[in-house]
Amino acid sequence: MKLGRMNHIGVATPDIEASIAFYKEVMGAQVVTEPFVLESQKVRVCFVETPQQGGALGTTGGTQIELLQPTEADSAVGKWLEKNPLGGQHHICWEVEDITEAKAWFEAQGKRVLGEPRVGAHGTMIFFVHPKDMGGQLTEIMERPREAH
Amino acid sequence: MKLGRMNHIGVATPDIEASIAFYKEVMGAQVVTEPFVLESQKVRVCFVETPQQGGALGTTGGTQIELLQPTEADSAVGKWLEKNPLGGQHHICWEVEDITEAKAWFEAQGKRVLGEPRVGAHGTMIFFVHPKDMGGQLTEIMERPREAH
């Protein structure tokens, strides 16, 4: 396997509207997508766009911030926020070309894949790998969107 | 201020050589820079290169992983590792055009800037902002390198 693009950093927040205001007003984000509920993860989610290398300030194409607010306390992100009430970096997401091959790859390396591949926030298939097998980072593996998101 | 490029994600590790092997052998990184000691932060540091959007697998230009191994237990990263012995995501780093203007901006927003700007791992001036003022994320602000790093 060759390393793919870092699609996004998942950032948990107790208040997604306050976080959007922070990224716009303090950090100067120019483009933030509309929040929507991702039922399978029990989160409200939106993306903060960032410029890529060589891109003008305020443009898109760089690694995104994925803001995540739990819709239920009894959910993965809800439990994470209990321990980290301010929010913060929750996971890192890497793109792969083929989700089935990627799952087989990580399993062959002895990495614990958490559940079966399912549809993620970008509409492509994703799975998570256990942080204890990944240098302490909860890691999302995501099939690369075929068009720019 | 307009949001700049996400330069890197700082990832603390108790063993930088093991982490380099992980990124190369498990994640498939093609380019990892040679580790060096950054005395001001009391860390050994290197960068895992990642492709940018549209870039082929194994190319560079995307947000980097900055691996950080403390050279002393009594250091910021050393203390962080005491609480997180496996390592993991330690900070996020954003590029700005002008470090002096950026410091004034964050201070005017009531954000706690941690110390004076100093030379960072990319050779440009950097400072950190307190995680409690930044949605739970320790945030590095870095003057953009004038040439590709």
Structure, explained:
- Two copies of one chain form a homodimer.
- Chain A is built from three helices and eight strands.
- Chain A has 149 residues and is α+β, with helices and mostly antiparallel strands.
- The first copy, chain A, has a single domain (6-143), classed as 2,3-Dihydroxybiphenyl 1,2-Dioxygenase, domain 1.
- In chain A, strands 2-3-4-1-5-8-7-6 form an eight-stranded mixed beta sheet.
- The first copy, chain A, starts with 5 loop residues before the first strand and ends in a 6-residue tail after the last strand.
- Chains A and B meet through strand 1, helix 1 and strand 5 of A and strand 1, helix 1 and strand 5 of B.
Give me the side-by-side strand order of the main sheet of chain A.
Answer: 2-3-4-1-5-8-7-6
CATH homologous group name of chain A: 2,3-Dihydroxybiphenyl 1,2-Dioxygenase, domain 1
Order of helices and strands of chain A: EHEEEHEHEEE
- The CATH architecture name of chain A reads Roll
Q: How far do the termini of chain A sit from each other?
A: 23 Å
